[in-house]
C-alpha cells in the first residue's frame, strides 16, 4: 500500500508544481491552443490558452512511479514498464501532433494517416512484448486471450488476432479520450475515475493472487501491485493537472495528454486481464466516441445530422447548456460508469445464498 501512496503523492505534488511552470514557459514561447472555426462560439475565448500540458502529466507520472520504487527499494516490473512505455510512446505521438498545430497555427496537426501509423507502431510493440517475459510462475503480463473480469474463451486466439485486438483497443481508447477532451477538465475527470478503478482492481488482484492462495476466483495476473502503482502515479499526476485544467482552464492537456491517458488505461486493461470491462469503466469516453460514429454514419447515409454537433458535449453546448454544467454532469456519468464496472468486477466475490 505504501508503494501506491508514494506514487500518487509524488505524481500529485510534481504535477501541481510543474503545471504552472509549464504554463509560463509555454506562454512565453507562444504555445497556445488553436480553435476549430466550426466549433461553439464560446470557445474563441480560449484561443491562445497554453496547451501540451500532457507533457507534465507524463513526466510527473514517470517520476512518481520511479520515486515509489526508490522509496520502497523495490524493482520495477515488466508489466508496469510496458504500460508506462505505451503511455509515453503515445504521448510522443500526441506531442508531435500538438507541435505541428502550434507551428503551423491550425487546429489540425499530424495527418490522420501519420497519426494512426504512430499509434499502431507503439501499440504493436506493446502487443508483441506483453505476451513475453514470464515470471518464476510462468505468468506473462498478458495472454493471447480475450478477457472481461479475467481471461475467458479459448486457450489462445493466436498472436496475430491478439495483436490486432490490442491495437483496436489502444487506438480506440486513445482516440476516445482525445474526443472527450473538448471541454475544460472533462477528459481529466473522466479518465481519473478509470485510473482510480484500476488502483482498486490491482490492489484486489494482489490480495487474491493465485500465486499466494489458490482459489476458485483467484487471479493469474503477473504484477498486480505494480499495475496499481502505475495507475496511482498517473492518477496523482492527473489530479494535480486538473487543479489548473478545471473550468475555466488555464492550460490544456492537448493530444500529448489525451493519447497518453488513453494508452495507459488500455494498457492497464490488457495487463490486469480486464479488456472488455474497460468499455464499462470508461463508459463516458465510449458514449462520446459513439456519438461521433453515429453522427458521421447517419450524415453519410441521409445527409442529416442526429446531433447539433459531435462529439456529444458540443451538442449540449449548442443546446444552451453552460460549459461547467456539462462538465460536472458528464463527470457524474463517468463516475457512475466506473461504479458499475467495479460492481461487476466484485460481483463474483459476493456471498451467494
Shape: globular
Spatial strand order of the main sheet: 1-2
How many beta-strand segments? 2
Overall pLDDT, averaged? 91
Descriptive account of the structure:
With 353 residues, this protein is an all-alpha fold. The protein has one domain. The protein has twelve helices and two strands. It has a two-stranded antiparallel ribbon.
Give the SSE map.
Elements: H1 2-28, H2 54-72, H3 78-104, H4 112-129, E1 146-147, E2 151-152, H5 159-180, H6 186-207, H7 224-245, H8 254-271, H9 277-281, H10 283-302, H11 312-318, H12 323-347
Antiparallel strand pairs: 1-2
Helix pairs in contact: 1-2, 1-7, 2-3, 2-7, 2-8, 3-4, 3-7, 3-8, 4-5, 5-8, 5-10, 6-7, 6-8, 6-12, 7-8
Task: Summarize, please.
A two-stranded antiparallel sheet has the order 1-2.
Features of the shown structure:
353 residues; mainly alpha; two-stranded antiparallel sheet; 66% helix; globular
